[in-house]
Amino acid sequence: MKHTASRLMALMVLTAGIMALSPSVAHAQKIAWLDLNRVLKGSKTGKRFLRRQKRIQRQFDDERRQLQQPLMQEEQSLQQEWNQLQRQQQSLGKEEFSRKLQAFKRKYDNHMKKVNALNQKLMKLQNKYTKKFQNNVLAPFNRKLKKVAAKLARQKGYTYILVHDPNNPQLFVYASPSLDVTGDIIRLLDSSN
């Protein structure tokens, strides 16, 4: 979803730049906007997108927790051992404490190697689920959204249909509600199911 927002933002900035360079062309163009959040929450296609996104996120979280669990237990054990070693520091002889401290450091170093290996696995896991989301959820949604936006643009003569969030404006501080085609996009998405 972050990549989609970045791509949409780049597209909006590019469009605004083109419009700023040639104001006379911008005035001759018919422009509309849609609220992507309303499309996601208000259309059957958007709701399906959000359900699939949550399902993939849950799968990732479950697999991540399963991978992390053994190391979390080991970390707790190490923390208990460290606390005990600190409590014993005064009662142990200097050599005995040094020996136990060195043994603890070896365990800790070994644990950190496992943590680093786990981090590598987690990065691969995140990449796997990101690709799964992009290929199975995001790309089909984007194709469908572009298809209905193009259909609406042809029907109503729009040159551009931009994404705008009136509650959190990024590019446009204000966009006239009369140019909002979100309802039309939702109707077209729902009728194309």
Protein model, in words:
The protein is mainly alpha-helical. The chain has one domain (2-191). Helix content is 78%, strand content 4%. It contains six helices and two strands, in the order H-H-E-H-H-H-E-H. The protein has a two-stranded parallel sheet. The longest helix has 63 residues, at 94-156.
Short description:
This protein has helices at 2-21, 23-28, 36-42, 44-88, 94-156, 182-191, and strands spanning 31-34, 160-163. It has 193 residues and is mostly helical.
What amount of the residues lies in strands? Answer: under 5%
Largest sheet geometry: 2 strands, parallel
Placed side by side, the strands forming the largest sheet appear as 1-2
> pLDDT below 50 for ≥5 consecutive residues: which ranges?
none
Based on Cα principal axes, name the global outline. Answer: elongated
- Distance between the amino and carboxyl termini: 22 Å
Mean pLDDT: 88
**What are the secondary-structure elements, in order, as H or E?**
HHEHHHEH
Give me the secondary-structure category.
mainly alpha
Radius of gyration of CA atoms, rounded to a whole number: 27 Å
Counting H and I runs of at least 4 residues, what is the number of helices? 6
Number of separate strands: 2
Query: How many domains would you count in the coordinates?
Result: 1
In percent, how helical is the residue content?
Answer: over 70%
